[in-house]
Design brief:
about 30% helix; single chain; eleven-stranded mixed beta sheet
């Protein structure tokens, strides 16, 4: 089967809007969390998010958005976008440039595109309210394609003139990992030579605040401690948005174009909890099964792993469930393999998370470091026995496992290693 490599990455995130900034903040454990003005009201129990900087997308008219250089989008493109699509577009433009792809490389029968996003709840709410207030014919004509869950792929397939496979994935916080896994399959099975993958979310009040009713968000008002996976006092996740794009290519394409990959994507696995619509299996059975399938797909074992980028979102139940799954899969290697959750720095990107953290892993592999798990003052006793690193290590992570879990018990795990 053809080997699959990551040849380009692009970032619009709470810890940076380019690879250099992201790498620095990962290395130095600088978080992107902040007090969020729209959460200031007394009846809102959460106060902190991890915002995207330099972009201003709160205005209902896309022409009033502030978009930083070097990005320039024509009015006819912006009209079909929610904030999530804007972030995805900018991130994917970065990734395409990073991979040194020409327009002909992007638009041909052998290049496909997969995306993941929950859509733009704020854009959808405004459109539906306007429809009821003034009538359907007074709504923006592109309000549907700017707001619903498929908006990222609708816009970017047209904008980039994609001719190969395309589609979107909706499995909550496992969505963009699913997109990457199935993109891997497209190349490994010889269906495509190249796949572009992007995950994106709005990251604003309409996208994040609904999780407060589930008691899933941290009420901690201190940005420095609100997101602290594996800590005994963690009390919920901090939401974030943005977009992250990746370019996946076959070995033949890498050799033909003479590019240097970030990493090789060795394989992936998935499994479901079959337990609860919103809560992870208490023993982590589905995640453990997904990890084992990923290792088998990649042709490696727990003994080969050097680092696990955990899904750990800083929720009381989810982090413990993942720790149990990790101990079960790592076995005698549990005390050696480095484990961290970069969500302590970025917040939780929902369907963006898998793509974002896979790109972090690719960056860490190329640059030779392992990001630490920040903000832990007292490790939860339920996490004992694992090598949860609290400081960044200046060493190659080697073979990496990246975990993602979503509502309904969807679990997806991806395995990466240095390109060689």
């Amino acid at each position: 089967m053809p080997r699959v490599f990551i040849t380009g990455v692009g970032f619009i995130t709470s810890i940076g809007n380019d690879a250099g900034s992201v790498e620095t903040n990962l290395r130095e454990l600088r978080h992107g969390l902040a007090t969020y003005a729209p959460f200031a009201a007394d009846n809102i129990p959460v106060k902190v998010i991890a915002p995207v900087r330099s972009f201003e997308t709160d205005a209902p008219d896309q022409e009033d958005w502030i978009i930083p250089a070097p990005y320039k989008l024509k009015r006819e493109l912006l009209r079909g976008m929610g904030p999530n699509v804007l972030y995805a577009t900018c991130a994917l433009e970065q990734a395409i440039a990073d991979a040194k792809l020409s327009p002909a490389d992007v638009s041909n029968d052998d290049t496909g595109f997969y995306a993941a996003s929950a859509g733009s709840p704020g854009t959808l709410t405004r459109s539906i309210n306007r429809m009821h207030q003034v009538g359907a014919m007074r709504c923006p004509p592109l309000s549907v394609v700017a707001s619903i869950a498929g908006s990222v792929q609708f816009n970017l397939v047209a904008h980039l003139k994609i001719k190969g496979a395309s589609g979107g994935f909706v499995s909550a916080c496992a969505s963009s990992s699913h997109a990457l896994g199935f993109a891997f399959d497209e190349i490994a099975l010889g269906r495509q030579k190249r796949m572009l993958v992007v995950g994106a979310e709005d990251g604003n009040i309409d996208a994040i605040l609904p999780f407060a009713a589930m008691r899933a968000l941290s009420p901690n008002p201190d940005p420095a401690t609100a997101s602290r996976p594996f800590d005994r006092k963690r009390d919920g996740f901090v939401g974030t948005g943005g977009g992250v794009g990746l370019v996946l290519e076959s070995e033949d394409e890498v050799l033909r174009r003479g590019v240097t990959p970030y990493a090789e994507l060795l394989g992936w696995g998935q499994a479901s909890d079959g337990h609860n619509v919103a809560i992870s299996h208490p023993e982590g059975l589905g995640l453990a099964a997904a990890m084992r399938r990923a290792l088998k797909s990649a042709g490696v074992t727990a003994a080969d792993l050097g680092y696990v980028n955990a899904h750990a979102t800083s929720t009381p139940i989810g982090d413990v469930s993942e720790c149990k799954a990790l101990r079960a899969v790592l076995g005698e290697h549990a005390s050696r393999v480095a484990v961290s959750s970069t969500k302590a720095l970025t917040g939780h990107g929902l369907s963006l998370a898998g793509a974002m953290e896979t790109a972090f892993c690719a960056l860490a592999i190329r640059q030779g470091f392992i990001p630490g798990s920040a903000h832990i003052t007292e490790l939860d006793p339920a996490c004992e026995g694992l090598n949860i690193i609290r400081a960044t290590q200046a060493a190659s992570p080697g073979v990496v496992l990246n975990n993602s879990s979503g509502f309904g018990g969807a679990n997806v795990c991806l395995v990466l290693c240095p390109a060689g």
